[in-house]
Design brief:
about 475 residues; alpha/beta; Rossmann fold; eleven-stranded mixed β-sheet; two-stranded antiparallel ribbon; 16 helices; globular; binds guanosine-5'-triphosphate
Length: about 475
C-alpha cells in the first residue's frame, strides 16, 4: 500500500497555497469542499484512485485532509474555514493566541515554534496515529515572511529530530525582486539553512517566475496570488499524481525524490509545467494540443521554469518527468533522445530523464484526455541563480549591519550574530557543490555511497522499469 503523506502548511503563503492544493486534490478525487464524497460509493467500495494517501476516510464517507495548519494570526485560516466548512480537522489547526503575526521577522516565528513544541509534537503524533503506513511529510511555506520562514524552520528541525526516518519535503516560495520587506534576505538565509540541513528535498518557486507564467496563461498582466497558487498546486498535484493514482512505477514519494537527489545537500528541485489546461487553471487560455514529444521539449524552455535563472545554460544532474494525457511511447523516446542532445547534463550523471506516465482524474468529466500536459522536476545548477541572488541581497544588508535590531530579541541571537554567518556559510557550500557538480572532476572526489541517498531503502534503488535511456 502507498504510504500516507502528512502536509504542514505554515503562514499566509503556506496556507493560501495549501487551500489551492486541497481544492485541486478534492476535485481530482471526486470529493466536495465539505469533505463528502461526490460519488455514490460506500466506505467499502473499491476506488481506482487512492485518496487515502492524503485524506483520512471516516465511516460516514467523509474525507478529511491529513493536514496541519499553522499561523500566528487568524485571518487566512478563518477564510479557509469559511470556504471549506467542516473540511479540515479543527484539532489540526494551530493559531497563536496573540494574533500578532510574526511581523516579517524569522526569529519571532522561530521562537513561537520553540515555545509550543510539545503541542506541535502532540498534533503530529495524533495525525501519524491515524495512518497505517506513514511515509512522508511535506511542508508548504514562503521563505520570506516571519511565520512560514521562522515557524517553518522550527518545524523542519522538529521533524528532522523527532521523525528522522521519514522523508521530509518542502514546497518553498521565494520572494519576487520587488521585495516588499527589507529583512526578507535575512529571513530567506536563515530558512535556507534549515531547508539544506533538515529537509530531504525542496521544490522551489520564485514569485517573479510565477507571475510571468500566470500572466502568460491568463493573457492578463494583472495576476493575483490565487492564480500563482494554482500554478504551485498544479505542480504539487502532478508530483503526487502517481501515488494518488498508483501504478507499478513511482508509487511512493521516496521513489520519486531518491531518483533525482544524488547527495543530501544537492536537493533543490526546480519545477516546470506545460501546458496549463483548464483541468488545473480554470481560466487558462493558452490551451494547445501538443504531442508528448512537443511537451517534453517545451518543458525545457526557460519561460516555463518556476525559478528565474540567468542566461547561462544550466547543467542538469537529474530530471524526473510526469506526462498526463494521450501520450505515445514513441514520442517519449524521441523526446528523451532530443533532450539528451539539447540540454547539458553533468558529465558524471547518467544523462537520464526519468519519464513517468500519470493518470487523469476519472472524476473530472469535463477534462479532455487528449490534451497532453507535463511536469519536469529538475535537479540543476539553475538553482544557483536563486541561491546567489539571496546571498547578494543578504551580504548587502548584513555587511552594513542594517536592520539587525529586528532580530535582537530572538533566542538564537542571544550571543551575537553567528547564526547569520553560519547560515551564509552553509548556503555557500551548497552553491559551491552545485558549481563543482557541473565539472568532470566531481565524481573523482565524491563517492555516491548508497547511504547518501534520500528516502527509504526500498524506494531508493528499486527503480528499474522506468522510461530511462
Ligand atoms: P508574517 O506575515 O510575518 O507573520 O509571516 P508569513 O509567513 O505569514 O508571511 P507570508 O507568507 O505572507 O510571506 C511573505 C512572502 O510570501 C512575500 O514574499 C510574499 O510575496 C509571499 N506570499 C504571501 N502570500 C503568498 C501567496 O499566497 N502566494 C505566493 N505565491 N506568495 C505569497
Amino acid at each position: 500500500m502507498t504510504g500516507e503523506v502528512i502536509t504542514l502548511q505554515v503562514g499566509q503563503c503556506g496556507n493560501q497555497v495549501g487551500r489551492e492544493f486541497w481544492s485541486q486534490l478534492a476535485k481530482e478525487h471526486g470529493i466536495g469542499q465539505d469533505g463528502l464524497s461526490l460519488q455514490e460509493d460506500s466506505p467499502t467500495a473499491v476506488r481506482e484512485d487512492h485518496p487515502v494517501t492524503f485524506f483520512k476516510q471516516n465511516d460516514s464517507n467523509r474525507y478529511t485532509p491529513r493536514a496541519l495548519l499553522f499561523d500566528l494570526e487568524p485571518s487566512i485560516i478563518n477564510d479557509i474555514r469559511n470556504s471549506f466548512p467542516g473540511f479540515f480537522n479543527e484539532r489540526n489547526v494551530w493559531v497563536s493566541q496573540d494574533n500578532l503575526g510574526a511581523g516579517n521577522t524569522w526569529s519571532i516565528g522561530y521562537d513561537y515554534g520553540t515555545e509550543n513544541q510539545d503541542q506541535f509534537i502532540n498534533m503530529i503524533d495524533r495525525e501519524i496515529d491515524a495512518t497505517e503506513n506513514f511515509e512522508a511529510f511535506q511542508l508548504i511555506h514562503s521563505v520570506a515572511g516571519g511565520t512560514g520562514s521562522g515557524l517553518g524552520s522550527n518545524l523542519l528541525e522538529l521533524l528532522a529530530d523527532s521523525y528522522h526516518k521519514k522523508l521530509v519535503t518542502t514546497y518553498s516560495v521565494f520572494p519576487s525582486d520587488e521585495s516588499e520587506v527589507v529583512v526578507q534576505p535575512y529571513n530567506t538565509m536563515l530558512t535556507l539553512r534549515r531547508l539544506i540541513e533538515d529537509s530531504d528535498a525542496s521544490v522551489v518557486f520564485d514569485n517573479n517566475a510565477l507571475s510571468n507564467i500566470t500572466a502568460r496563461i491568463l493573457r492578463d498582466s494583472n495576476v493575483s496570488y490565487a492564480q500563482s497558487n494554482q500554478v504551485i498546486s498544479t505542480v504539487m498535484s502532478s508530483i503526487t499524481n502517481s501515488i494518488r493514482f498508483p501504478s507499478y512505477m513511482f508509487s511512493s514519494l521516496p521513489s520519486i525524490f531518491s531518483t533525482i537527489v544524488p547527495t543530501p545537500d544537492m536537493h533543490f528541485l526546480v519545477p516546470s509545467f506545460t501546458s496549463f489546461t483548464t483541468d488545473f487553471i480554470p481560466e487558462a487560455k493558452n490551451l494547445k494540443r501538443s504531442t508528448g514529444y512537443d511537451v517534453i521539449l517545451d518543458l525545457f524552455d526557460a519561460n516555463n521554469s518556476m525559478v528565474t535563472h540567468s542566461a547561462d545554460d544550466p547543467v542538469y544532474i537529474a530530471i524526473y518527468s510526469l506526462l498526463q494525457g494521450s501520450v505515445e511511447q514513441s514520442d517519449i523516446t524521441r523526446g528523451i533522445l532530443k533532450t539528451q542532445k539539447r540540454v547539458q547534463f553533468a558529465p558524471w550523471s547518467k544523462s537520464s530523464l526519468h519519464v513517468n506516465i500519470g493518470k487523469k482524474s476519472p472524476y473530472n468529466k469535463t477534462s479532455n484526455s487528449d490534451y497532453v500536459s507535463g511536469l519536469i522536476l529538475s535537479n540543476t545548477t539553475a538553482v544557483n541563480s536563486l541561491l546567489k541572488k539571496t546571498c547578494n541581497s543578504f551580504d548587502t544588508i548584513f555587511n552594513r549591519g542594517a536592520f539587525l535590531h529586528k532580530f535582537q530579541n530572538g533566542r538564537v541571537f542571544e550571543n551575537g550574530w553567528d547564526e547569520f554567518k553560519e547560515s551564509r556559510e552553509v548556503v555557500q557550500s551548497v552553491i559551491d557543490e552545485y558549481t563543482y557538480a557541473a565539472q568532470d572532476s566531481y565524481i573523482d572526489d565524491i563517492l555516491l555511497e548508497e547511504n547518501m541517498l534520500v528516502g527509504n531503502d526500498d524506494g531508493a534503488m528499486d527503480i528499474n522499469d522506468d522510461n530511462i535511456i
